[in-house]
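Hello,

Our lab assistant flagged a job as stuck in the queue for most of the afternoon. It eventually completed. Since we weren't sure the result was trustworthy after the delay, we are filing this so someone can double-check. Below is the sequence as submitted and the structure that was eventually returned. Let us know if re-running is recommended.
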Amino acid sequence: MKRELIINAAAEETRIALLEDGLPAEIFIERAATPSILGRIYRGRISNVLPGMQSAFVDIGLDRDAFLYVADLLPSAADLEPVAVENVIPPAPVRRRGPPIESLLKEGQEIVVQVTKDALGSKGPRITTQISLPGRTLVFLPGASHRSVSRRVESEEERSRLLRLAGSLPGEGGFIVRTAAEGADFPTLDSEARGLRARWEEIRRASEESAAPACLSPQADLAEKVLRDLVSPDMERIVVDDEPTHRRCRDFVERILPGLGHRVEKFSREEAIFEAFGVEKELERALRRRIWLPSGGYIVIHPTEALVAIDVNTGKYVGKTGFEETALKTNLEAAREVVRQIRLRDLGGILVVDFIDLEEEESRRRLAEALEEELKSDRARSRVLKISDFGLVEITRQRMKKSLETLLCRSCPTCRGSGRVKSAETLRFQIRRELRKVLPLLGGGDAVIRAHPEVASAILGNLPLLRRDLGLTGTQDLRVEAVEGFHPEHFEILGG
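-- returned structure --
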């Protein structure tokens, strides 16, 4: 697979696209006015303890208090023995049952916490007391003691070797060996471990010298964070359109992967970099509900409060031999696109994919295997349940930051986020019902209907019928005014 990074850097916004075989697979966007706080470490003050929810709210100096669940306060079961964990930050260990939160925290108490999820909608950020400091090859867990290796390291021999090296790292604290460490020697791991320990000491000293609420870790540069997590020897090139960012990225890559700094290229064409690589077009496509497949089928993606519903349809594709062959080909094509859209849009939580029904067990097996294979490319932790009898597949996917739609869009002020407004015909009948209630109060006087132009036009087209229906006398006037600035569902009935 051909992998490239495209970096569009500007003073107020940085956008980074990971391309796989020429198509965007992941997008990272950060704006100077609203930077992500994911991974930041704070000294916070407990503002409220909720025994009924086994959680607490913590003031970390933001507009909204952060949310701390009791499971994110307790030591994890992973501290009992070395285990393999996902290559994600922070890790997600199995929790142990422990004491109630009211026995662990009190209002006004100060604690050191780390943000695991950005604020989303009306919810404040999610935090944990289990701090993790990511490096390129290691993740340092100051409050843990276990040493473990990412599950993405598939070779058992390499996993055992890395686990032995991790166990030999001196000093206290836990470590997770990341996939980038494959093939690394002990001096490489030891050097990064020392750097991460030094970073933790700086944070710990800052905590002792600061009063809550206070941020203890500086804001990391988005380009460097993405390079640290994504760049590997198989990255074909990194293209940057800003000269200072280009120099910084080249130096950073040369530092973490000596000899590969030349793969960071300066984009010098007049055309905008995201336009040149087709990213802008794919971003616009990723904000649509319907995505067409090469065969003529399509998928519909509909996020809701509880889950994301994804529907697969044959569309224009009619196949050649039979329905099973048509359905299977569409489903296999959709599986690839569904996973790419999930990664590109950064959809998380519960995802339900309604594939086209397959009758044969062999077809279901091929679809399940294809979906699992596609999800291997996803860095986020996910779990796929067995295909149901109705062709539904449930996927749970780790959510740590805002989806692309949430980041780039806002609720429509016209439909107020519902995606629907009442039709002009529906409003015409609603206004007729209101007139029946209002006209007697006017004492036989004239009435004025003020409405959106589309609604006003529908009323005027049926005005004689409306007058007869209301029983208006010849002396009683009923006027209709079209108001451009009105919301489509808003109207007024006034006395003449």
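-- support follow-up --
The delay was a queue issue, not a problem with the job. The result is valid. The first helix runs from residue 156 to 168. Residues 433 and 470 are 9 Å apart (CA to CA).
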